[in-house]
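Why do we bother with holo predictions? Because pocket geometry can differ from the apo form. Keep that in mind while you read this record for L-homoserine.
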Amino acid sequence: MINIAILGFGVVGSGTCEVLSNNADIIKKRIGEEIYVKKILDLRDFPDSPYASRVTHEADEVFSDPEIKVAVETIGGARVAYDYTKRALSNGISVVTSNKELVSTHGPELIKLAKENNCVYLFEAAVGGGIPIIRPLYKCLAANNILKIAGIVNGTTNYILSSMKNEGISYEDALKEAQKKGYAEADPTADCEGIDAQRKISILSTLAMDGKYCNPEYVHAEGISKLTTDDIELAKALCCELKLIAYFANNGDGTASAFVAPHFVDKACMLSDVEGVFNAVLVEGDYLGEAVFYGRGAGSYPTASAVAGDVLEACLKDSVDMEFRAWDDTVSVFKDYDDIKSDFLVYSKTEDVASLIDGADKIDSVSGINAVIVRSISEKDLIGKIAGNSAIGYKHYLK
Ligand code: HSE
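The structure, written out:
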């Protein structure tokens, strides 16, 4: 029997207990051992839970217990969760988490600490909830150079944009609806300002660059709070979908780019059909070509599914190759946003944008809007070309 602990018995922590308990038989068959949740660390009591007797408020009871091999950190944030994760790893207890904030901000230190103490720090659930994306990136695709990642990695914002489009409602009303349905947090800043997506793309970018750390602090993030129904209508007129995209590109010269911004996504792109709270991550590898990982990016059970999968991996760490590439934060290969070149869709109802910008591809619109695609240009240089003409607008473009 392998004993584990749950740190934080919220939506994901309790969901993980359910997965491990309800599928205990198949799990035992697959790893040859029973997994037993021995302790649950939380400030609260859960008198009605079948796990009530295992709840403790004393961290020492978990970290000093030599029988506990794996801790599931589902506290969130980067304060208490950071302290507890360090304590667990320092004591040789593997940690499994869905905490993208902690992984993205302290990943280099925590992965190193795990290695030094002969245990593992795993975070499949930190990006895309239940969608397998972390392990596919560093294991199944290990023979590829990862050239590009474009992800819809925040369910709340995708839900809001879908509602604005499908129901013709404002950003504010769509946000209220998302909060009512329990998708958005009461304080939706991290979701709506692109910070949650910024953390997630920093994790994916680090993996795509073989552990060269992408610090989220330096990843440009623009959210959706300034978008209006006019932007949605414009997207429709230009045969695109308006999506919040977390983007990574390997520039092929040793540098890489990562940023988060609203994009006009061409209908030809596989991400354009991703609606509601669903997530999707498009990965391009030099031999893979393009593949899309699609599914439920949040919620108790999908996230618990990924967490529980990592628990099994952590339990098997002695018999399975669990070598995780170290994350190196001593060099940065990620470009400043001002130097990042990407594609833009530039539009105007009155100006002939094609004549203003050399080499741009003119595109057809269904309602007489002049529009061109300008490729591989920095936003700073694009603004220079538009020269303050308020009749011209633009958005990042993805095909
Ligand atoms: N707030 C996140 C989202 C939860 O809406 O996608 C999952 O990370």
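The pocket of L-homoserine is lined by residues 129, 154-156, 191, 196, 297-298 (CB under 6 Å).
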